[in-house]
Amino acid sequence: xxxxxxxxxxxxxxxxxxxxxxxxxxxxxxxxxxxxxxxxxxxxxxxxxxxxxxxxxxxxxxxxxxxxxxxxxxxxxxxxxxxxxxxxxxxxxxxxxxxxxxxxxxxxxxxxxxxxxxxxxxxxxxxxxxxxxxxxxxxxxxxxxxxxxxxxxxxxxxxxxxxxxxxxxxxxxxxx
Length: 176
Hints:
This protein has six helices and seven strands, in the order ααββαββαββαβα.
């Protein structure tokens, strides 16, 4: 809240954000969660999640946006896994072996140390995100930058776009 005030955000905007964070609209009505799965151009699968006070209106708005972008609403969740994602930071360089031992012991699914060796990205089961974030920040003396539940593309559904672009170029040359 202090950062929002420092950034100069209006008080009513801050209050609306707090209300939405609590799961209620400004009128006091509970917000509903809406999930839309879509396939966008170039076979890009997406899952759109949002909270709304008017599910029907929001669903129609999202369908229209997907259609205008050249996509179609269709099931795509089978191409993703639901995971907890935690970003942690350190003031010193992280030792990969020590970190990996702690991450596995905490029960995480996957991890990645940043190129600067001072940041750590951890994937967990969704229901274990908060406890693993707390455990790792304590045991490794790290600062938690963020933690959230995300959709992660399954490895077998990810394609290398450079290969796809090369195939498209070759197909174009064959047509000539």
